[in-house]
Structures are given as C-alpha cells and as structure tokens.
Design a protein that fits this description.
Three copies of one chain form a homotrimer. By secondary structure, chain A is mainly α. Chain A has a single domain, classed as Orthogonal Bundle (Ammonium transporter fold). Chain A has a two-stranded antiparallel ribbon. In chain A, helix 2 packs parallel to helix 4, helix 2 runs antiparallel to helix 7 and helix 5 packs antiparallel against helix 15. The longest helix of chain A is centred in the C-terminal third of the chain and has 31 residues. The interface between A and C is large, with 79 and 60 residues.
C-alpha cells in the first residue's frame, strides 16, 4: 500500500493515463454539447442559487443572475464573434469553436463580479456592468489567448481572477459607509442556506466539465476533468477541517462549506489540462481549502474595515486568491513541462509550439503564463475603476443604504408567512 | 462593429454554421441518450417544481406531477409503440427511434395541461386525464408527423398548442364559480417562489436539448439547439423589461420571471431545426417575451372573469399563445425554404421530399404546417370537452371549492412550523 | 392492441432491441463521461437532499454527505486503484476503467449506510465509518466481480445490499434506548419535505445512467437504461397506490413518495443489463413498490421496537429488501439466459464464458450470482459489527440522546425566522 501511494504520488510518467505520451489522440473525446449544458447549469443554477443565502434577497439573487446572464450571453456572442469568428462579413456561430460555450464562460466572469456587489446595486446597474465587463473580458481573453498564446482552459486568469478583481474594484468605488443599516438582512436563515447549497453542489459537481470544456479533445480533456475532480475533493476536506478548527467550539460555518469547498476548482483552472498529475491536484486543492477558509475568517473583515471593500459573497476568497494561485500553478506547471512526460510531438502539439512560437520552450511558455496574470489584473483594476465611477452616477435606481439586501425594493408583493393548516377550515374531500 | 451586427443579422447564407448547404452531415451528432436525460429532468424537476409556487400545494405539485408522468410514460410507450414501432407482433423499444424520448415528449403535453387544472382536481382525475390525453396526443402526433408529414421537432404544435388548449378546455368544463373561497391559498410565499425558480431554470437551461432531441443528427440538431438558445436569451430580456414597465412602481413580478421567460423556447419549437437564423430566433424570443407577459397581466384575468376559464398556472400565456406563434413561425419558415440556403439535396433531404412528397415544394410544406396547427387545435378542443365532461362526474374525489390549492386534502400530517433552536434545550456535545 | 400488449409482454426474442442477438455491438455506446456526471449528481445532490427531510438536520444532511463523499472518493480511488488498476508501481486513473465512476459507486454505498445512522453520529464518526466501509466495499467488490465473476452492473449486491446491511448493523450496535427524547425533531416540516423531493427526483431521473454506467458499451448499456426506466416508472404507481390504500383516510405519505418510488431502480441493478425484457422490469418495479411501502408502514416500526434497529431514513425498505430482491432477480435472470435470446457468441461474450469460466453455463452463473449475495451479506454484517463497536467508543464527539437530529450541535448560528417585510422600514428606491 505504501508502495502504491508512493507510485501514485511521485512518479509522473504513465501515472495519470495510459498512452499519455502519444499526441493526445488516444482517449475518446467528450462531446462539447455535454460540457456546454453542464456549464449552462453552473451559470444559471450554480451561481444563481449560491447567492440565495441572503435571507431577504433570494428573488434578486436568482432573478438578477438570470437576467444578467441572459443579457450577457447575447452580448458575448457578438463580442466574441467579432474577435474570434468574424469571417467574410458574418459571425459564425457554433456550440464549440465559436460561441455558446465561450459566451457562457464570459458570463461566468460577470456572475463572479456580481457576487461582490450583490444586494447593493439595481438591475439597471447590473446590466451596465455586464455590458462593460463582457467587452473587457473579450479584450482580455483576446490578448491572453490569441496574442500571448497563454493556456487557460478553465479560466483561472480570464474568468476568475479577472472577474473577482473587477468586481472588487467596482464595489470599492461604490463603497457605502452606512451599509451597517442593512446589517440585519446581510445574513442567512435556515432555509436560505439550504437553497444556497443547491448552487454549491451544482457548481462543485459540474466543475470538471467546466475546466475541460474547451480543452483539446481526448487526453487533455480527460486530464482536465480528473485533475479538477481530485482538487475539488481535497478542497472539501481542508475547508471543513479548518472551518471547525477556527471556531471556538469546533462548529462548522455554512459560509465556508458553501464557498471554500469550490476554491479547488478555481485553482486548477489553468493547469488542469496540463500534466499536473493527481497528486499535484490534491495538493492544490488541499492548499486552496485552507487559503479560502482563512480568507473568509480573517481577510474579508479586514478588507471591509480597512480597505473599504464590501465583498458580499466573499468572492475574493473563492475566486480572487484561488484564481491567482491557479495562474501561478499554471505558469509553474507549464515551465516544468518536458518531452519526457508529454513526448516530443505531444509537447509541441499541446502548447502549440509552431508558427511564431516555433522557437519557444516550456520555460518561455511559463513566462507568458505569468504575464497573462498581470495583464488580467491590470485590465480588471483599470476597467473596474472606470465602470465603478459610471455606476456611481446617481440616476441608476440604486437602493438606499437601509434598503440593501432587500427584495421588496425591486419585487412585488412579498409575503413570508405560510398559512397554517389549522388556519384553514377544511372540509373532507368529496367521495 | 456595425458591419458585424449587420452581417450577423441580415445575411442568411453561411451565417449560422459553416457547411450548412451540405446534406446535413458535417457536424457531429449529439448522442440521443444525453438529450433524453435532459428532457427527463425537464419533465420531472422542471414542470414539477415550476408548479410549486402555490404556498400550500407544493407536495401535490411535485408529487402528482411525478405520479402522472410515471404513469403517462408507461402508457405512452404502449400507445406510441402501437403507432410507430409495431412490427411482427412486438413493440420495439429504444432510447431514440422508438420510445423513451417520445414517451417523455408525450408526457410533456400532459404536464402542460396539468398546469391549467392545478389545485382543482384529484389524483384520480389526473390519472384519467393522463390516460385520455396520452391517447389523443398519440393520434394527433400520428396525423401530423406521419400523415401530413409536418415538421415539428420541438413540439410547438403537438406538445404545447395541443397540451395547452386541451388543458384550457378541460378547466373550462370544470369551471368552479365559488373558487374565490380558496383565493387566499392561490398565491405564493417567499420560499415557494424560490422552489418554483428551480423548475424555471431547469426548463430554461435544458430547452435547447428538448428542441433538438429528435432532430436529424448533425446540422439540424445543432441549428435547433442554437436557435433555441438565442430565442430563450432574448425572451428573458423582454419579459423582465415589460414586467417592470407594466407595474406602477416599476417592480418585477415573480410570475412573469418564472413563466414568460420560457415562452421563447416554446415559440421556436417548430422552426428551430430550420434555417431560422440567429437573428430570426432573437426576434421570435423578443416578441414572445412581450406577448407572454402581456398575457399574464391582461389576458388571464379576462379569461377567468369573462370566459370562465380558470387557468391556475397561466399556461395560455406560456404554452398556448407561444405555441400558436411557433406553429405560424414554422409554417412561414418552411414556406421560405429554398435551395439557395439549404442546397438542392439538402432541401429535399431535410423536408423529406420523396415518396408521395416528390412533387412538393417549400410552399406546399408551409401549407401542411398550417394545416397541422388547425388539426392540433381541433383535436385539443374536442378531446378536452369529452375528457372534461368525464372528469365532471361527481365520484372522482375532487376537492370542494374551499379546499382547492390545499395539500392537506391529499397528504398526511402537514406541519409548517420549524422548531426554533431556542425551543430545544441543548446539551453540549460529548467530548 | 391486445395482440400488441401480448407481444410486448410475453415474447422475449427480438422484442427489446433489434439486433439483440448480435455480439453486443450494434448500438452506439453512451459516453462514460456522461454517465459519470449523472452518477456524481446522484451522490451529491440526490443522496444529500433526500436526507434533508428532517426539520432540523438539513445542514448536516447535505453538508456531512458532501464531506463523507469527498473523503470517500479519494480513499476509494486509492483502494480501488490498488485492487483493480495497480500496474508497475503506479495506480492508473481514468474516468471509465479505473477510477472515477467506481469511486462514486463505492461512495454510494457509504451514502446508503449514512441514511441508517443519520442524525445520531458525529462527523468524526462518519469519516471513520467511511474509511472502513470503503475498504470493505473494495474487498467485497473484488471478491464478487473478480473472484466469483458475478455480474452486478447496477450494484444491487455490492452497493445497495452491502451498504444497507452494513449501515443497519452499525446502527444496531449504536442503539440509543433514550432516542425518544429527540422524537419531536425526527420528523419533517413542509419545506424540508420539498427539499427532500429534489433529492428523490434527481435520484429517480438519473438512475438509468447509474445502472448502465459500467455495463458493456452498446446493447447491454441500452438494455440497462431501458429496463431501469421501466422498473422505476412501474414502482412509482404501486408506491403511490399502496401509500393511499394503507392510510385510513386514503391520504398519501411523503415518506413513501420520497423513498419507495426509488426501490425499482435498486431492484433491477443486477439484472438490468441482462435480457430482463421490459415486461420483466415492469413486474420487478411493480413488486418493489409494494414491498418497499409495506416495509415503511409495518417493518420499520417493528425493527425499531423489537430488534432495536433505529433506521432513520428507512434504508432497509429502500436499499435492503430491494437489494436482496435485485440479487435474486439477477441470479434467476442469469440462470435463464440461453443462446436463443443472446446468440451463442453473445451469451459467451456477455457473461465472459472464457478463461477459467470456459466450462460454465448459465445455470452455473446463476449459482455464483446467489453466492455473491451471501458473501455481500456476510461481509456487511461482520464488518458492521466491527465498525459499530469502534464507533461506540465514547470519544468521537457523538451527540447526546436529546441532541440528535439537531444541526445546532455542529453548526454555527442557526436562525429559523425570516425578517418580515413589514418589520423593515423601507424607503423608496432612489430615482
């Protein structure tokens, strides 16, 4: 058993998949349509319900997420079509190469940013934010994938890091000093946390599809799915363990279970399709569970009190830090890639070392990966400041400080009581 | 950008998918099994939870939907087997050609009709309705698809129009003049609307699979999925916009978000697999969001007060009107089909212009599509009257007027209070 | 119609699928990745939410299920890797042959056992139970599949029978004579039952994927899915009918709808991939709905009062009895297999009658199937006693008798009240 563990954990060659050194064609491909539907579920049910933890903001969490995602998808089809599939005057649309999956990914980064401003903005502000963020996402993605030739299958940089720091910058600009007036509503109740668990679980379960959706068919796709699966499983354990360890009575906190357990999926986004190996994935997930939980306990209060960043869902701990970790892991993994593991053809094929990249080696690829992280951060910060200033204009219908996290500002007739059976005088059913 | 928008919106040829003029074989097919599972989720979770919006009828919504769907599936396998796959004395069963997907589709039309009578009928009445409706559905589908050779991949006519007008006719016959006695229960509470959103989202997300499930493999299947996706996305925007615009304080109504957002999927049911083009789909979705929301605000109250049609879930706005629009869009799109877009072989291949249809052209196909709509409506109305009269017989255990929309008539021991933590004297956990 | 029914019900040859006598290659295979994701949903959302029916134990049901499944998956990858895919010092990992699906199956049996001890054990006890049960599962599976060469695609024996009797033995050892002190919390409330229906429906819908996930590609896989689908549909009808028939006022019981409707999937686990035929599946489902509902009404109270087995979720009725029925059905179906139905090559190919099994016939296979059931029961009982004794040690943080079924022992800050709209003084939204 010891030998087995050793073998599993330390020797890369032939460990993950048989035939791994071939040119990436020995494993059957997963149909894109399948991954597309899984990603779709993550965007609409996953992100939508994850944010229903607020006791009085469930309609808006699900409803506004639905609205901005549907709007973002259409705008993203146009923007991404313009950048990637514009030929002879037409935009070409498809499930795979041009379009639907990429549009969902793009909207994913908006959903991330939505988590930071949740409860404090109006639907009009959300639509404006979506409009700008989709545009910036497309520019950033074009720079990373097409100009820098960075690998980022699961979007650690393009989706999570970009989305998180964009959202955090926006919420920093929109700082509300009197938000404590809504403090009583900025918490969960029993059933709202159960609704949020629906979101958590669908995100967690379909994350392997997310990270492998746009990988090269075959081996790389399988690797991406397996690495993500391992990382997520490890992340759950450390999140739960640390959540209990940091509580004075050893109790668990629903916030950590809902969020920190997902950090492992974010952090293998870039490296998942590479030869990270299962043991590498487990280590990444292990670390991210710790970092993310620590972030919720210590960093989020610090950000709010000192840096005036009011991060409603704690996206800095779920997408920001793990996204950066993911970008670094990706850069390191790319740097360490060698022909012994990938095969000579496989290495060139996987990283696309042809065209202007003919003279590149793994180390160069690693440097460009790191550059991609800084470009994403820069665009997120600058874009976030601009969009934040636009959203600060006083005519977008934003709620007053004492009305934040409250559905009844935007939704008709809310009732929160259930008629009790004893209230209604029942007659027996007819024969 | 302007050019791009123009290209995307106005030029049909080569716009949607490359290689579109070939004989429909250039795109890989989506496995049927996949679409089958997605449709399965729509029937059981989608329709089941969509109807849980009623505050005191959640058990029945999910439970009776489960019951009638499970019963309907078995009966549909027999009925459809008899019409479509009866060979040498045996019914042949398969996931694709004969059976499971078609049985689910058939049950879908029963779920639609269930929405009209929701809360006012007993489980026994539902089973009787299912028995008759599945039979009538199979007859109607056989006439449309096998005799009239109509195209209806997503079932705008066979599923939605037929199901809606059948259900509306039944509820018209079962008119209850004293239903106002249960008025207090015919509304939602906070968490019941969140449960309903689970249904809405799963229907919305998997609708592209629904509309493409029985399309010809390859191109037609991809077109169906992409067109449905575009139509649904557009529909969300106009539903939300109009819901807000029609409220005197600009607030949103959960009923519209839950229902009208889905109308776009109904309305591209027939035309989705044809050359509707993305811009066509967006227009259809755009219009349906408006029509459906207007229907909820103005038409449903009118139907109830003037025509004595008590439509609990508003299926006339979600399935009835959009189904008719879908049938018309399908007829027009079929009429406009030409060899320039489909290719000569592609056109004949797609519409099956051989056998007794050798002399047909697109215009003839369009006329038969229109005929299919009228046949569906006629069978729905006549069948609905007959079934309604049968269900009006007084010995099916129907609830009294003051017990409608109430679970406790049919379900044991309902409690609606949660024990509060402070109620239970807790001892600390053992070491 | 009569003829058709006859044909469907009684003649096996050529009835289920065309080309059935070939060597199992004529139907396209379903990608494993797809089934894997469906099984994943069943483990995390299905089992997790199925157990949220307890009014004060929702966090723990979903959260601890999440924890033990994530832990179990990792341990199972190692254990199963050691038994099945250990080559040249390394464990080989893949979605299909070695790994992810099998790890999920293995965890499935832990989730089953969790249902018996639900509410009465601490998370530490659950992790210990998972550790041992995964190990025992792997040993048992190795004996059945690799030594006895038993067929058990859907795991009636390896997953359900083993998991149920293991869990029942553990809860028998952990018997709490004063559990009545928590009786008030060992029941459901309105919305907790709706959450549980989410679990029920996802288990029900994806069960065909579960039973067909590790079948031989092609025909066997299609048969497994279709047989499971038929059995589940029949099971819903008898469960509902009997639930109503056994109530003195004819009302339905949510417990039966949530659980007994699934028994049909358990009971075709072994035989699903064999030539059970649709009529056979319907009969199995029909019987299991009856047995399972009767079990909930009469057997569970008996087990608790006389045998001191406190079975929180009634897993004996959902997994125990149907698992044994499934094993028997599998043994009988295997015994009856003949070359007329499978074809000569098909028979040898399907049951693997080569190597040391060259001299076997169907009857011998049937005997080994029966032997597999007894081995599973023996390992479950012996293992359950050992693990139960370990868990009875007083330092695992188990809750006191009066704190069972209570989240607040392990979870921070529970609130069960929702702020009412009228409570919060709202100002109108800014322009």
């Amino acid at each position: 058993m010891g030998l087995c563990l050793l073998g599993w954990n330390t020797v890369p060659v032939m460990c993950l998949l048989q035939g791994i050194t071939s040119e990436g064609v020995c494993y059957p491909s997963v149909p894109y349509w399948r991954c597309f539907q899984d990603v779709h579920v993550m965007i609409f049910v996953g992100f939508g319900f994850l944010m229903t933890f607020l006791q009085r903001y469930g309609y808006s969490s699900v409803g506004f997420n639905f609205l901005l995602a549907a709007f973002g998808i259409q705008w993203a089809l146009l923007m991404q079509g313009w950048f990637h599939s514009y030929k002879e005057g037409y935009i070409h649309l498809g499930v795979e190469e041009a379009g639907l999956i990429n549009a969902d990914f793009c909207v994913g980064s908006v959903c991330v940013a939505f988590g930071a401003v949740l409860g404090k903005v109006s639907p009009v502000q959300l639509l404006i934010m979506t409009l700008f963020q989709v545009t910036l996402f497309s520019v950033n993605e074009f720079i990373l994938l097409s100009l820098l030739e960075v690998k980022d299958a699961g979007g650690s940089m393009t989706i999570h890091t970009f989305g998180a720091y964009f959202g955090l910058t926006v919420t920093w600009i929109l700082y509300r000093p009197s938000l404590h007036q809504s403090k009583e509503r900025q918490s969960s109740v029993y059933h709202s946390d159960l609704f949020a668990m629906i979101g958590t679980l669908f995100l967690w379960m379909y994350w392997p599809s997310f990270n492998s959706a746009v990988s090269k068919h075959g081996d790389a796709q399988h690797r991406a799915a397996i690495n993500t699966y391992c990382s997520l499983a490890a992340c759950v354990l450390t999140s739960v363990a640390l959540s209990s360890a940091l509580h004075k009575k050893g109790k668990l906190d629903m916030v950590h279970i809902q969020n920190a357990t997902l950090a492992g999926g974010v952090a293998v986004g870039t490296a998942a399709e590479m030869m990270l190996m299962p043991y590498g994935s487990l280590i990444v997930g292990f670390i991210c569970g710790i970092v993310s939980t620590l972030g919720f306990v210590y960093l989020t209060p610090f950000l709010e009190s000192r840096l005036r960043i009011q991060d409603t869902c704690g996206i800095h701990n779920l997408h920001g830090l793990p996204g950066i970790i993911g970008a670094i892991v990706g850069a390191v993994t790319a740097s360490c890639a060698n022909a012994k593991v990938y095969g000579i053809k496989g290495l060139a094929n996987f990283f696309g070392f042809d065209g202007f990249k003919t003279s590149w080696d793994s180390s160069m690829q690693g440097k460009f990966q790191a550059a991609g992280l800084f470009v994403s951060l820069a665009i997120a910060l600058v874009g976030g400041i601009i969009v934040g200033v636009i959203l600060k204009l006083p005519f977008w219908g934003q709620p007053a400080d004492e009305n934040c996290f409250e559905d009844s500002v935007y939704w008709e007739e809310l009732k929160s009581t259930v008629l009790h059976p004893e209230d209604s005088t029942l007659k027996p059913a007819e024969p």
